[in-house]
Structure to design on (1188 residues):
């Protein structure tokens, strides 16, 4: 993966006239020097620093004889350059160095700074050498030269007369005759090439060609647009020994470039596309792998106006390819066709004022060392915009441009153990995503601060933790941590070749030309070799990896001329004295670490396994390495350079125990491998569907989520949707909320057909009075509405909503009413029903808060179905268990306690209410008050105002003021919360409080009374559970689920809750079936308390008047209903169970005539029709998946 970094640099060229402008650039094999051609000039440039070293200008007399320069090709050892001319000449230039230690450029250090001139290789790395160019040989081929290609010690030349010349670098043909292309047989494969056809026209010749070492042949483009591949069947390069294959459907080829690592040939075409071919190993035929082409969807204005492909160039690591067209533009593609960069659209194509730029025309381009730079010769007139006064416009005449790139470390070090964090490397710096450990603490702290700053409007069920590290790292971050590589190390070891980060994301190691260095993200310090000679004596060959605190690398020892495997401890000094060294038999190309096993792949196509263990030798700690096994793979690998990565899948021990490769390793291996190779990968490691199911069975949901991307590309959409549904259901059940949110986006993306991009986030939402639960994570609730203003037909809160900007808001905008949204909603509704049926209120609260589920509006619909309490006793027991709320008990001394008669019965109740942020607490001294609304409680503002009570005729007590004072001074820890914020609770419970009546200054309590208070306090659950229960009480109260409110009121043992419910029933139209259910449930609780839990009996005695009143209201509603006809809507309700209840749950009661909630009345017929439609759509979207 490559990325452009900054604006391209323009190199100053000494130009005389426009006719002397450069038009061709070619790097040497080491990419240290660059040959730049002008019509009569040959210039040599140095890479770092990018400076001009020497220029050769052809004399006017010889120039008229040879013609202008056309192409240049370097000798493999960079000692000669061959230049072709327009009149068929090849000029051989020798590159020599002047005698003595002379350099063209040397660094100048300020006085007093440490000098590096005494270190080895200092002159070579820091100083631009002084070179001389001398033309030694001239060869006349008597025909215009079309292409030059260096092949080992020979130079292959194609001329316009249809001949191929094989020339020695010293300018001699060695008596070998030129090969006429008309005598080379061509066919669709090598099996029939002897009987194939020949190039039967006289003017056929090669337009462009390039040698592929791993295929042992030449990819060629003919002048008529046909493409082909020529390979010798023996070591002799003669016409009789050459065979050719070609695809017969390509007739518009323009240029070619080969990828030796993947054995691919990229042919540019006149249509503007690039066709990438490979060779079939069995028949030798050319097979089309894929195409690189612009689409009308991405580039509607220019996709078919680019002109022919002009140039194609693979990067030095063979991981990306650049393409440019005749009409201009530059694009970058991955090996198998993913577009990374294109200058024809986006910010590249337009200026800041909106005007369109002319595409950058490129005459020639060549990659620099390690792919960090792309040397480009811009074309004539490419920047002629007609705005002469624009100071930012580029100079019109051609010049040298230097594009700068950064790339993923996996392109050169694919076996790096930590692949969860994105690490990019540039020529002098590293880019790391902000998921590393050093950043997580600050991120966690900043997020906590931002939440506190936003206010207390968070649900008590909302999780403040971060996403899971694995999934979060895979998704990436928007911010980057930039690490500047040590200049001391870069001065003599540029460019950086390998990088690796440890599994904790705290340490990074880099490898340059010699040695290596490592950096700590915690201390912000680099550690280099103390002995510079040791650093300059080792060349890392096969990459490096981290194993715990150790750095494992394969290198070549220059002084001993020996391949070695070394292990260095991070915490010790960087010195060979602290390293464990093991000699190797051959050069290491790839290195990987799996658990305690080091796997290396060597140049002789062998794989060697080493065991690594930590050893403590006194005060020093080292690592020991021993050879486990060596396996030769030469029978299966045609060329060692073709191996992309090596990964250990399993290890069988002597005891027969097999350690399998973790699934996460397979996913990472697939993610760094091109899609075209996935079939080969999973043919070796297993079917991705089976691996996905294994991850589900192992409860590794994050890795299973990564497999969805693979299934999405390899299977039909129905399969990926089926597996995504299964994973979504499992994540819901396990409470993996981050994964659930991503699965919701993934399922929606599958339906919209745009799975590559995340679904759009709604920008505007309308709050609703019945469904505001999803806003609780970022809002505060105002209970300022007085009870007198609430109509009799409503019992809802007046809410002040603060619209969230994150994922806690509504999932979809109201106009996106598509099938996928309904499908996801059905899954969420089904899960919510299951949680309610299983009485898992705590899980229901977390589920709604984390996923932004509109709980209140859904509860209004399910009030008499899933949201109905079927078994009050069972529900009460489940709440005690889930919220860690102890069952109440009665002390032995309670029989003689004054609390038995209720004289001080509200002491514990008031202490309970102190945790719910009541600012004032009232003391009741008479058991007869059950109908008086407590205006001090937040529940008092929920329901309507009861009829005014005459103090003289009422049976209620006289209200008295109560004062709370802390026994110990706890400072700021003791604060009373606000009743306007349900999600913040007071910390008064942390202090020791007593109640002081105004009639006496001290409260004398006996031992039995103190025991009773302590037992009552011990009957309370955790503070967080109390906050959550009160929160759920508010939700159910707003939704009209009064039976659940009764259950929560029982567990909290607050008579005010029961009193409030009775008041709501008196002033609102509540379904008679719900009233009967509440009455039956309370009687069942009373029987259970009498037999199994006597601790509830005192509270049940307190609420006896409310229960009696409830019974009276129930009887009043049952009598007139006895004469009402049965509604039609009840028939389908009991006709059969719902699809969601097919698991064995029984159906609930019928829907009431009118629903009380949000002020809307819904008829039975309309609701049943809506219900049937929802069930039908849910059944259509249900998929079954069997896990084996």
């Amino acid at each position: 993966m490559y990325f452009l970094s900054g604006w391209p640099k323009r190199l100053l060229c000494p130009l005389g006239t426009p006719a002397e402008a450069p038009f061709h650039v070619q790097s040497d094999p080491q990419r240290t020097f660059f040959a730049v051609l002008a019509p009569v000039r040959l210039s040599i440039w140095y890479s770092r620093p990018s400076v001009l070293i020497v220029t050769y200008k052809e004399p006017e007399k010889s120039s008229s004889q040879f013609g202008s320069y056309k192409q240049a090709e370097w000798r493999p050892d960079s000692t000669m350059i061959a230049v072709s001319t327009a009149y068929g000449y090849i000029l051989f230039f020798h590159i020599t160095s002047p005698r003595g230690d002379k350099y063209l450029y040397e660094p100048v250090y300020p006085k007093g700074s440490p000098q590096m001139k005494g270190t080895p290789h200092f002159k070579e790395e820091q100083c631009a050498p002084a070179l001389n160019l001398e033309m030694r040989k001239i060869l006349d081929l008597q025909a215009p030269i079309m292409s030059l290609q260096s092949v080992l010690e020979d130079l292959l030349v194609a001329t316009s007369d249809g001949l191929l010349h094989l020339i020695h670098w010293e300018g001699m043909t060695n008596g070998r005759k030129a090969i006429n292309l008309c005598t080379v047989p061509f066919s669709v494969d090598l099996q029939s090439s002897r009987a194939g056809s020949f190039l039967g026209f006289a003017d056929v010749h090669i337009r462009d060609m390039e040698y592929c070492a791993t295929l042992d042949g030449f990819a060629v483009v003919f002048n008529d647009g046909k493409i082909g591949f020529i390979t010798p069947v023996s070591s002799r390069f003669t016409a009789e020994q050459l065979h050719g294959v070609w695809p017969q459907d390509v007739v518009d080829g323009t240029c070619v470039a080969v990828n030796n690592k993947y054995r691919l040939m990229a042919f540019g075409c006149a249509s503007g596309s690039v066709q990438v071919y490979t060779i079939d190993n069995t028949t030798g035929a050319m097979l089309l792998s894929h195409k690189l082409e612009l689409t009308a969807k991405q580039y509607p204005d220019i996709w078919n106006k680019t002109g022919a492909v002009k140039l194609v160039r693979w990067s030095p690591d063979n991981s990306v390819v650049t393409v440019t067209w005749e009409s201009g533009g530059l694009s970058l593609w991955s090996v198998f066709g993913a577009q990374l960069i294109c200058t024809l659209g986006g910010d590249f194509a337009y200026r800041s004022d909106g005007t369109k730029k002319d595409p950058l025309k490129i005459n020639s381009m060549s990659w620099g060392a390690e792919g960090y730079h792309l040397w480009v010769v811009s074309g004539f007139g490419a920047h002629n915009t007609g705005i002469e006064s624009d100071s930012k416009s580029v100079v019109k005449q051609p010049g040298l441009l230097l594009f700068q790139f950064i790339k993923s470390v996996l392109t050169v070090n694919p076996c790096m153990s930590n692949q969860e964090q994105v690490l990019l490397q540039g020529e002098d710096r590293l880019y790391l995503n902000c998921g590393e450990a050093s950043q997580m603490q600050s991120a966690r702290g900043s997020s906590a601060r931002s939440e506190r700053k936003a206010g207390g409007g968070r649900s008590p069920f909302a999780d403040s933790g971060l996403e899971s590290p694995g999934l979060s790292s895979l998704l990436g971050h928007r911010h980057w941590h930039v690490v500047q590589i040590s200049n001391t190390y870069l001065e003599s070891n540029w460019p950086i070749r390998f990088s690796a980060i440890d599994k904790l994301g705290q340490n990074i190691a880099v490898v340059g030309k010699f040695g290596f260095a490592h950096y700590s993200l915690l201390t912000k310090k680099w550690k280099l070799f103390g002995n510079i000679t040791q650093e300059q004596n080792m060349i890392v060959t096969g990459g490096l990896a981290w194993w715990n605190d150790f750095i494992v690398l394969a290198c070549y020892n220059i002084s001993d001329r020996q391949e070695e495997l070394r292990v260095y401890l991070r915490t010790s000094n960087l010195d060979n004295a602290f390293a464990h060294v093991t000699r190797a038999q051959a050069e290491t190309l790839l290195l990987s670490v799996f658990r305690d096993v080091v796997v290396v792949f060597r140049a002789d196509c062998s794989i060697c396994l080493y065991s690594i263990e930590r050893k403590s030798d006194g005060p020093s700690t080292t690592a020991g390495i021993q050879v486990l096994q060596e396996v030769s793979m030469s029978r299966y690998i045609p060329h060692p350079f073709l191996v992309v990565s090596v990964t250990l899948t399993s290890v069988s021990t002597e005891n027969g125990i097999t350690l399998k490769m973790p699934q996460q390793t397979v996913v990472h291996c697939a993610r760094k491998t091109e899609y075209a190779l996935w079939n080969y990968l999973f043919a070796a490691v297993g079917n991705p569907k089976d691996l996905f199911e294994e991850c589900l069975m192992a409860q590794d949901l994050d890795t299973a989520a990564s497999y969805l991307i693979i299934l999405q590309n390899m299977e039909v959409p129905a399969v990926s949707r089926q597996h995504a549904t299964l994973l979504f259901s499992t994540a819901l059940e396990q409470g993996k909320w981050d994964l659930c949110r991503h699965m919701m986006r993934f399922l929606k993306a599958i339906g919209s057909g745009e799975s590559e991009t995340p679904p759009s986030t709604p920008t505007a939402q309308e709050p609703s009075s019945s469904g505001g639960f999803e806003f609780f994570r970022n809002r505060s609730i105002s209970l300022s509405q007085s009870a007198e203003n609430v109509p009799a037909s409503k019992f809802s809160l007046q809410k002040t909503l603060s619209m969230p900007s994150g994922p806690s808001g509504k999932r979809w905008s109201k106009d996106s009413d598509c099938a996928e949204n309904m499908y996801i909603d059905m899954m969420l509704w089904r899960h919510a029903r299951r949680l309610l049926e299983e009485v898992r209120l705590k899980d229901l609260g977390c589920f709604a808060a984390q996923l932004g589920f509109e709980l209140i509006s859904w509860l209004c619909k399910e009030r008499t179905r899933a949201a109905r309490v079927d078994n009050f006793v069972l529900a009460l027991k489940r709440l005690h268990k889930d919220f860690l709320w102890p069952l109440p008990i009665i002390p032995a001394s309670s029989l003689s306690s004054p609390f038995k008669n209720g004289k001080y019965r509200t002491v514990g109740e008031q202490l309970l209410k102190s945790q719910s942020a009541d600012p004032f607490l009232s003391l009741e001294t008479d058991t007869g008050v059950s109908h008086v609304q407590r205006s001090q409680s937040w529940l008092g503002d929920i329901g309507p105002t009861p009829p005014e009570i005459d103090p003289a005729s009422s049976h209620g007590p006289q209200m008295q003021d109560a004062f709370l004072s802390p026994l110990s001074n706890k400072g700021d820890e003791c604060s009373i919360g606000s009743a306007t914020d349900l999600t913040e609770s007071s910390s008064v419970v942390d202090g020791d409080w007593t109640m002081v009546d105004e009639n006496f200054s001290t409260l004398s309590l006996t031992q039995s009374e103190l025991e009773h208070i302590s037992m009552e306090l011990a009957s309370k659950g955790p503070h967080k559970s109390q906050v959550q229960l009160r929160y759920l009480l508010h939700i159910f109260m707003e939704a009209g689920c009064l039976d659940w409110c009764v259950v929560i009121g029982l567990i909290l043992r607050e008579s005010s809750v029961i009193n409030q419910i009775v008041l709501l029933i008196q002033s609102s139209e509540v379904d008679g079936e719900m009233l009967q259910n509440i009455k039956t449930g309370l009687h069942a609780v009373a029987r259970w308390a009498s037999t199994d839990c006597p601790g509830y009996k005192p509270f049940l005695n307190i609420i006896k008047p409310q229960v009696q009143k409830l019974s009276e209201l129930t009887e009043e509603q049952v009598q007139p209903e006895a004469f009402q006809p049965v509604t039609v809507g009840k028939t389908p309700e009991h006709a059969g169970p719902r699809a969601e209840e097919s698991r064995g749950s029984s159906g609930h009661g019928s829907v009431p005539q009118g629903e009380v909630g949000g002020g809307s009345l819904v008829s039975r017929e309309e609701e049943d029709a809506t219900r049937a439609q929802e069930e039908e759509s849910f059944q259509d979207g249900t998929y079954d998946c069997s896990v084996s």
